[in-house]
Amino acid sequence: MTSRIHEQLTKYEDRLGSTEVYVVHHPDAYSSWARAVFNGENYDEGTAYNHRTIRPQEVIIEYDDGDRKTNYDLAMRASRKLSAHNAAHSVWTSGNKSTHIHTFFNFSDVENVRFLKRLLFKFFGTHKHRGKWYEPDMALSSPDHLIRAEFGVHETTQNHKSFVDKTAHFPQYNSIPEEVWEEYDTTDPSMNDFDDEELVESVANSEAFKWLLDPQNVKEIGDGRKRGTFILGNILWQATDRDKEDIINFCQEWYEEAGGRKDRLRTIKNQLESNFELGGYTPGYLYLSDYLSDIGMERLIKE
């Protein structure tokens, strides 16, 4: 019997074309992260994989900043704006407190897809709610980023990512709004900080990253530990000669010294191992800036 995620990914391939997608089976907080390539050698179409990588031309708008109702309300606003631009999309609840929107755009001949995705996030996803402005999760501009797979179980709550609604003709490739193209064409190229080799070196040498290396700084703030380990692990993986085990040990020690719970150390290890096996993620300076803003350290961004 085929799983529902297999049926969903097959539908994407049938309608949008074939591309390499990694899937992960991690059904609870203490299980290993079993990885495979969709329809690859070790893939099992009956397994209920609950994570997958983002397709190259996929845009996922996720809100995970407020409570469940706030995230849902924000997603509905983004959904209405997508519909106003005739952009086919689907809406899902994550199994925890966030809400996801899946949509696809044609990025053929686009030089800087990650930057263009961020502009699409802001165009469709920036909304004011009860006097506060919200943006979607900008980390999802990376195709290497793992997301909760459709119908996948949340390993902590044991609730499933659930379908809410979709527009007609989903999935299909949508047209990029002219307003987004105009901003993409007129933005200072230095802001498009995604030349991987130069990017990693510049981020690793920044004062902001040096601040992050000290776990006591994050401990004093009391927030951002798990996301901090993700940034640290990936920058150290790509910018230094340290081996995988050394980086994972460092990140676990950093997490604990930053005030993280000891029972989360195995989760930190499993997530980093899974990420490294997928080739790693390149966190740009904009991503680091978003992180610093979220934990109240905006003053470091320009240093």
Structure in words:
The structure is a single chain. The protein has 303 residues and is an alpha+beta fold. The chain folds into 2 domains: 4-183, no CATH class; 196-300. The protein is built from 11 helices and 11 strands. The strands form 3 sheets. Strands 4, 5, 6, 10 and 11 form a 5-stranded mixed sheet that branches. It is globular, with a radius of gyration of 19 Å.
Helix/strand-derived category reads: alpha+beta
Major β-sheet profile: 5 strands, mixed
N-C termini distance? 55 Å
Residue stretches low in confidence (pLDDT < 50, at least 5 long) are none
Which range best describes the helical content: under 10%, 10-25%, 25-40%, 40-55%, 55-70% or over 70%? 40-55%
Oligomer: single chain
Tell me the overall shape: globular
Total individual domains: 2
Order of helices and strands: HEEEEHEEHEEEEEHHHHHHHH
State the helix count. 11
Strand content: 5-15%
Radius of gyration: 19 Å
**Count of β-strands:** 11
Average pLDDT number:
87
